[in-house]
Amino acid sequence: MKFIGQHTPDLNTRVVKILPSDFMTNDDGGSTKFGIGFVETDGSSFGMKIPNADTELIAFVDIPKGMKAIKVDIFDDGDDRAINVFEANVNSRTITEKATGNCNTTIILPSGINSTATNYLLILITTTATSDRTYGGTVTFAAK
């Protein structure tokens, strides 16, 4: 993921892109249905393709030191799939849900999620069909 500059005139705000390659699948589609594909055909098939209708897409995003995550945007092919944003940690098996919303709609993280030495964002997209496509997204950060 790369910083894409300032989204607003506020010099303390930064936006990071979530690229299609930043997504992975979970195991909900079954043990033989792992993996993800990218359809590069221009038009209605373009985007990340899941291998099974029960599979969900996940992206992990680091929260830069001295910053807090304040909003998440994920873009899909217009079905406005459900999104859950969690705070996760590299040193434990626990995750805490921080916000929910839908693709193509900005998800505000009400109190923000401050960076720590161990935390990161886990963004889960609920897909429902192998024809679903996800393009990527952005996370907006502000100074703590």
Description:
By secondary structure, the protein is mainly beta. The chain has one domain: Jelly Rolls (Sandwich). Helices cover 0% and strands 51% of the residues. The protein contains no helices and 11 strands. It has strands at 13-18, 23-25, 37-39, 47-49, 56-62, 67-76, 82-89, 95-102, 107-114, 119-126, 134-143. A 5-stranded antiparallel sheet has the order 2-5-10-7-8, with no helix packed on it. It has a 4-stranded antiparallel sheet with strand order 1-11-6-9, with no helix packed on it. A hairpin with a 5-residue loop joins strand 7 and strand 8 (95-102). The protein is globular and about 40 Å long. Mean pLDDT is 82; it is low at 1-9.
**Mean of all residue-level pLDDT scores:** 82
Please state the CA-atom Rg, rounded to the nearest Å: 15 Å
The biggest beta sheet reads: 5 strands, antiparallel
Could you list the spans in which at least 5 consecutive residues all have pLDDT below 50?
1-9
Percent of residues in beta strands? over 45%
Count of β-strands: 11
- Just give the CATH class: Mainly Beta
**Would you give the CATH topology?**
Jelly Rolls
Number of domains: 1
Order of helices and strands: EEEEEEEEEEE
The chain-level structural class is mainly beta
Helicity level: under 10%
CATH architecture: Sandwich
Major sheet: order of its strands? Answer: 2-5-10-7-8
